[in-house]
Amino acid sequence: MDHGLLPAIVSVCAQAGFVPRIRYEALGTPLVLGLVAAGDGVALVSAAVARGPHRGVRFARISTPRAVSPILLAWRRGIPDELAHQLADLLHRAARDVDGAEGAERAEGADRAEGEPPGGT
């Protein structure tokens, strides 16, 4: 079972009424962005990636349909399970906070130019 981003991307494309033509599956964000900058296609990346400067790459927020991809938590053997559970709880709370902030942003309307990354340029 693939827990990566690809199944979420394919699902969002299907909801939008098309099937993507996937030429490459690149491992690692730098390689993906390098392919985009070279003019070899487009990519869907997380909003966190768009916050940094990437020469030759433009970002645009996709508001609907919303893509959801699971996040898995891995930890080294020997680390107490309780610590991992506390971290998982913290991440769940942070995700809910981000979800609430993004919902408020959508309700207020976007003040940035089309194609401008989240959080400004």
UniProtKB/TrEMBL annotation:
Chain ranges of the LysR substrate-binding domain: 3-95
Highest rank taxon of the organism: Bacteria
Regions that span the bilayer: none
Gene3D superfamilies on file: Periplasmic binding protein-like II (3.40.190.10)
Alphabetical UniProt keywords: DNA-binding, Transcription, Transcription regulation
Region (Disordered): 99-121
UniProt feature, compositional bias: Basic and acidic residues: 99-115
Family that this chain belongs to: Belongs to the LysR transcriptional regulatory family.
Protein name as catalogued: LysR substrate-binding domain-containing protein
Species whose genome carries this gene: Streptomyces marispadix
Classification lineage: Bacteria, Bacillati, Actinomycetota, Actinomycetes, Kitasatosporales
